[in-house]
Write a structure and sequence with these properties.
Belongs to the transcriptional antiterminator BglG family. This is Transcription antiterminator LicT. Keywords: Activator, Repeat, RNA-binding, Transcription, Transcription regulation. It comes from Clostridium manihotivorum. This protein is an alpha+beta fold and 278 residues long. The chain folds into three domains: 48 residues, CAT RNA-binding domain (Transcription Regulation, Sacy, Chain A, Roll); 99 residues, PTS-regulatory domain, PRD, CATH 1.10.1790; 104 residues, PTS-regulatory domain, PRD, CATH 1.10.1790.10. The chain contains eleven helices and four strands. Strand 2 and strand 3 form a beta hairpin. Helix 2 packs across helix 3 and helix 7 packs across helix 8. The chain starts with a strand and ends with a helix. The relative contact order is 0.08.
Amino acid sequence: MKIEKVLNNNVVTIIDENGIEQVIMGRGIAFKKVSGDEIEENKIEKIFKLDSKNASERFKSLLNETPMEYVDISRGIIKYAEKTLDKKFEDVIFLALTDHINFAIKRFKNGLPIKNEMLWEIKRIYRKEYSIGMWAINYIKYKLGIDLPEDEAGFIALHIINATLGESMPNTMNITKLIQDILSIVKYHYKMDIDEESLSFHRFTTHLKFFAQRMFSNKQELSGDDSLYEVVKDKYEASYLCVKKIRDYIKVTYDYELTDEEMVYLILHVQRLTSKKV
């Protein structure tokens, strides 16, 4: 395996057998090395395979501009998130998260922290990802002695959510807002507080995440048997009236028409959530 380019002492690129450029990282992997030298494979810590020329160029630029400590921290956070969520992320998260950490620390040092307007929603809807964000800012404090605010835990959580859902940041923000708005409709329709510790709440928000992802991706499910919709609608009238408000809100706000099948699932979830049963 031969070096194509040396980016710094810890990062090189190679050209694989398919002619695709890959970025290889390892502490000291390029020390006293030049293009054409063999890589010491025992020093390889991570190989990044980015699926576009643009992403590859951005990644190389980022690694040139970012302190190695921040790169290591980003890798540590991703490793912890993958273990916690039992999920393997695409390499592109490393680019986005490292870039965010780099600028978050710069902003903090310059006294310019950014308020996370969606922190409350993230804490409610994405609890595991938020806990990873909190772990991350504690990890940064341990590694660098920099005490980032809780808002940054929310921003890091959003990057984890992006990787989990396979969405862009704007779509993730839209998904989060839609879920929050639907929960508010349920709350005010029933004039009740929702038990956010219940299994029903967890099931409902999980369903909403995937529903919202389909909606914003324009992947509507085909409507199933209309007779089931009529049965559920008649059996759970109060839940139907609530979901009807949700349907009308989505139609007006997003110009998206819920199918009967989507209505059925929402009615059943709302019924379970509001009947105080898990």
